[in-house]
Amino acid sequence: MTYTVDYLIVGQGLAGTIFAETVQNNGFSFKIIDNAALKNSSRVAGGVYNPITGRKMVKTWMCDDLFDQLENFYPQLDEKYGVKSFKPMNIYFPFDSQEKQTDWISASADDKYESYIEEFHKEGLYAEYIQADFGGMEVTRSGYVDIPVLLDAFKDYALKNNQLINEEFDYDQLEQLEGGVRYKDITAKHIIFCEGNKVESNPYFTNLDFRPVKGELLMIKFKNARFNHIVNRNGFILPIDEEGNCKLGATYERVEQMESPTEKGKRQLLEKVDNLVNDEYEILSHWSGIRPATFDRRPFIGTSDKSKNIHIFNGLGAKGVSLAPYFSQLLINKIETGSDLPFEVRLDRLSKQQRINLNTK
Ligand SMILES: Cc1cc2nc3c(=O)[nH]c(=O)nc-3n(C[C@H](O)[C@H](O)[C@H](O)COP(=O)(O)OP(=O)(O)OC[C@H]3O[C@@H](n4cnc5c(N)ncnc54)[C@H](O)[C@@H]3O)c2cc1C
C-alpha cells in the first residue's frame, strides 16, 4: 500500500507537532515519523513563554508577532484535543537593584511594553518568603505550556488516524522525485525535518551552525511557600500545583554535552532558589536535556539548497514554545506561496564556512 500526503514530517517533538498542526490548519495532509526511543528536548522543558527575557531583561525578539500567534494557537489545540496544556500565568520579577527598578519604571512608559507590564509592586510580592528591597514587576501575557500533555494528545490522535509512524528515519531511503520525495511507501510533496539535536545525522543540512546547549531542571516542594506567579530572577520557579511543588530552572551549559544531570547543575539551581526564597524545601527530582540552539540564537527555517522539496524547522533553542506556532505558519507560507522568511531565520544568513572565513581574514 502506498500513501500520498502533502507533508512528510520527521520528528514529533514540539517543532514537528506544531508544524503538523499548522499543516492541518492550512488544509493539507501529513504523515509524521518519530523514533519515540530517542531523547527529546521537548519532554524535559519547562515550557515557559515569557515576553521579557535574558540576563538583561529585554522584550523578547519579535515578541508581538510571536505572542499574538501563540495565544490563539495553544488554546485552539487544547480545545481540539480536550486537554489543558496551555497555562497562562503572570511572571513576578523581584528587582535586585535600585537601578533595575528605576530602569523598568521608566521603560514602562514606552508603548512597546504596554500590554506586557501588569503592575509594579513597591513592597514586593510574597514578602514573607522573597526578599525584594527594591520591589518587583509583574509581567503578563506569560505562562507555560505543559508540553508532554500536548505531545501525548497529538500522538494518540495521529496514531488513531494512521498519521504517525514510530520508527527511526533512514536518510538513505529518501528518494527525490520530480515534484516531491518518496520515503519507503510514502510519497510526499514536501519533507520537513524537525529532529531537534539529532539533526547532526541529517545529510541535507550539514552546513548549519548548531550550538546545542544543555539544560538542567529540578522539581522541588516548598514547605510553606505557595506561589501563583512564575517567579523569575536569573532563572524561574514555576509553580505547578497548590501543594508547593515547583519546577526550578534552568541551567545553560555550552561546553559539557553529557545528557545526564550533574551535581554542578543541581548546585547552580539550588543556589538560585536559596538566594531568592526563604523557605525549606525538599528535592523531588532532577533531570536534563539538550536545547537545539544555534550560533546566533535564532532558529534555522527554510529549504535545502539540494532540493526545493526538502525543508528544515529546527534551532528553536530555549524558546520553542513561543517560536514554533508563528514560524510554522511562515514556513508553510514560504513553501506554498513563495513568500520570504525573515532574514534572521534564513539558512543562508551566515554559514559555518562563512564564519570561519570571516574569522581568518
Ligand atoms: C532543560 C530545558 C529547559 C527548557 N525550557 C524551556 C522553556 O521553559 N520554554 C521553552 O519554550 N523552551 C524550553 N526549552 C527548549 C525546548 O525544549 C525546545 O526549544 C524544543 O522542545 C525543541 O523541540 P524540537 O521538536 O526541535 O526537538 P526535540 O524535542 O528534541 O524533538 C525532536 C524529535 O525528533 C525525533 N527524531 C530525531 N531524529 C529522528 C530520526 N532520525 N528518526 C525519527 N525520529 C527522529 C526525536 O525522537 C524527537 O522526538 C528547554 C529545553 C531544555 C533542555
UniProtKB/TrEMBL annotation:
Looking at the record, the residues that make up the FAD dependent oxidoreductase domain are 6-331
The molecule here is called: FAD-dependent oxidoreductase
Q: Which GO terms describe its cellular component?
A: cytoplasm
Q: What stretch or stretches form a coiled coil here?
A: none
Q: Which Pfam families match?
A: DAO
Read off the lineage from the record.
Answer: Bacteria, Pseudomonadati, Bacteroidota, Cytophagia, Cytophagales
Q: Which domain of life is it from?
A: Bacteria
